[in-house]
Write a structure and sequence with these properties.
Elements: H1 3-61, H2 66-88, H3 93-117, H4 121-125, H5 127-162, H6 166-172, H7 187-190
């Protein structure tokens, strides 16, 4: 065999090793996105579990505000359903969009609940209500951190899939860009739910 043939063979092998490495990196980054969504999922489930307890405590004091309480529970159930759909396919942009919309509705319903609760000093003074509010606030912070980690992983994947020469492998094997979890569009909607009891 001639030296030229060995060089061509070496270049082909080098190209194959590079392609395998690029493919494996994209798979690893895509799995990191799914794992990051799993962390969001854990925090959202924690939040969804706290809300019925919060509503039950508030129900004692807000008997004539049943519409507000029912709205919170309905929004919680809708958000939980959207979360379960998104958890089954965390890389589906449509499922993530539905989850974001449901979370926005839940945030609004919780905001209305806490606005109504402000008018009831006995409810504000209730120890269980204060503890649940603190837990919910802490969980909201954890959800925010988990969303940021998710978006960081999506950015890393999208950057890797869009850069040449990895772009060739990404297109060849169908690694499309992934959607980030975005905040809502208006400034009012972007504000976090205020929990003050």
């Amino acid at each position: 065999m001639s030296v030229a043939l060995w060089m061509v063979l070496a270049l082909v092998l080098l190209g194959i090793f590079w392609a395998v490495g690029a493919y494996n990196r994209l798979v690893r980054l895509k799995n990191a996105i799914a794992n990051a969504f799993g962390q969001i999922d854990v925090q959202l489930k924690r939040r969804y579990d706290l809300i019925p307890n919060l509503v039950e405590v508030a129900r004692k004091y807000l008997a004539h505000e049943s519409q507000t309480l029912e709205a919170v529970i309905a929004a919680r159930n809708q958000a939980r359903s959207a979360e379960q759909s998104a958890a089954s396919s965390p890389l589906n942009a449509g499922a993530l969009g539905a989850l974001a919309g449901a979370e926005q509705m839940l945030g609004g319903a919780l905001g209305r609940l806490f606005a109504v609760a402000e008018a009831y000093p006995e409810l504000k003074a209730d120890q269980t209500m204060r503890e649940l509010s603190e837990e919910l606030s802490s969980t909201e912070n954890r959800v925010g951190f988990a969303r940021q980690a998710y978006n960081d992983h999506v950015l890393e994947f999208n950057d890797a899939a869009a850069q040449f020469p990895t772009l060739v492998i990404a297109r060849l094997f169908g690694f499309g860009t992934q959607a980030m979890l975005e905040s809502t569009t208006s400034e009012v909607e972007r504000q976090a739910v205020r929990i003050e009891i």
